[in-house]
Model the fold of this input.
Amino acid sequence: MRIKTGIGYDVHRLVEDRDLWLGGIKINHTKGLLGHSDADVLLHAICDALLGAISGGDIGKLFPDNSPETKDIDSKTILSEVAYRVKEKNCEIGHIDSTIVAQEPKIAPYIDKMRETISILLDIDLDCISIKATTTEGLGFTGKKEGISAYALATLYQLSDKETHSLMSQIK
Done:
């Protein structure tokens, strides 16, 4: 068995007249994130971390931001597709660790629901998902409330072809 890791990062600008989606849930806030999709920076960072672990490029490669087919796509759809690609590579998700960087809104009240949503989308145990939040003490674009960013680290376990064959024969 091989252990594989990937890191992801995403950032989007906060704007008026958009819903704020983070971790697959709608957050009550006066502004939302601008993007070709719903601009869920947390799910995007997780996607890129997972894709990095399987050497699968990034979400921009799979869901181009200049494609009419992907305009306003739900990031939960993107994460589900990435999870499928992880399984195609004989990988299992061991753990996701993530951090949302935002001056506002306060993220803590939403973390449990985000973890539940991601757990369902990735079909992994709730205790395999960590979400933290921090501010930048008023510094930089997040501190000035111009945007929100997120970091994610994914740890995957990849079975060898021999191990996969052995497991499949035991299931039969």
Remarks:
- The domain at 2-171 is CATH 3.30.1330.50 (60s Ribosomal Protein L30; Chain: A;).
